[in-house]
Amino acid sequence: MAKKSKKNNKYLKPFKNWFVLIFTGFMVWMIFFDANSWLIHHELNSDINALENEKEYYNREIEKDNKAIKKLSSEEGLEKFAREAYYMKRENEEIYIIEYEDSLKVKTNE
Q1: In sequence order, what are the residues at sequence separation of 6 or more whose Cβ sits closer than 8 angstroms to the Cβ of residue 83?
Q2: Which one, 1, 41, 81, 106, has the greatest CB density within 10 A?
Q3: Is residue 99 part of a domain?
Q4: In whole angstroms, what separates CA 67 from the centre of its chain?
Q5: Are 74 and 82 in contact (CB under 8 A)?
Q6: Can you give the residue range of the structural domain that contains 46?
Q7: How many domains does one find in the chain?
Q8: How far apart are CA 46 and CA 35, in angstroms?
Q9: Of the ranges 21-25, 41-45, 70-74, which one carries the lowest mean pLDDT score?
Q10: Is pTM beyond 0.70 here?
Q11: 25 in any annotated domain
């Protein structure tokens, strides 16, 4: 039984020093329990990354919308949009809409 206590003492010997105990307690406190803990910083960094990705997405959408606005600001672009989206026509003009079977939305009874 004396051999087991020597092995245990070998691992516990550093924790008999007050400085090591205080430092260990301080590190545990700072990593897990403090208001500025590592866990909170990790969570905040992941939130920042998510917000930066969202910001990039919205910047791309703004660029795409600006291009669409630029197209619609010309007379030709506005006419093209009105013809394609709202099926508008000029006077004395006929429009035929051709729809293919694979492009139609079919309701299925389930």
Answers
A1: 89, 95
A2: 81
A3: no
A4: 24
A5: no
A6: 18-90
A7: 1
A8: 17
A9: 21-25
A10: no
A11: yes
